[in-house]
Amino acid sequence: xxxxxxxxxxxxxxxxxxxxxxxxxxxxxxxxxxxxxxxxxxxxxxxxxxxxxxxxxxxxxxxxxxxxxxxxxxxxxxxxxxxxxxxxxxxxxxxxxxxxxxxxxxxxxxxxxxxxxxxxxxxxxxxxxxxxxxxxxxxxxxxxxxxxxxxxxxxxxxxxxxxxxxxxxxx
Length: 171
Description:
The protein has four helices and seven strands, in the order ββαββααβαββ. The protein is of the alpha/beta class. The strands form two sheets. It has a five-stranded mixed sheet with strand order 6-5-4-3-7. Helix 2 (70-82) packs across helix 4.
């Protein structure tokens, strides 16, 4: 049936604001990770390499927001360990590939208004650090080899994106 449904708009499309729908479907307020398939990655702080993986693996930038929990951290860890984004549709758990996990509050930057991003959605350090640590701990408890950055530090991240293959995960 074509035409306009007065309750839903044209062809059944809702006229509700997009952000409302995102919130109800978990897109807002979700623990967020940008995951890249890499052929090696490292993190340097003050001239010292603090975390490094060699060969095929995943480089994971983790952002935490105010509503995130230890349960969400565990859920993200399970997803990272099992996501099939390595060569031949393998996961880190399939081939014991390493992960480099780096905290990145800027994943919650909002630049929709003005010229400067706001960070209101990012959890403060005292909330975010233990949750990023929980992601790492959960990955290690699953058997993963995990290298990390240094929370709150100015980090220089180097990687070779293999593909390129980059995925956004929200839990």
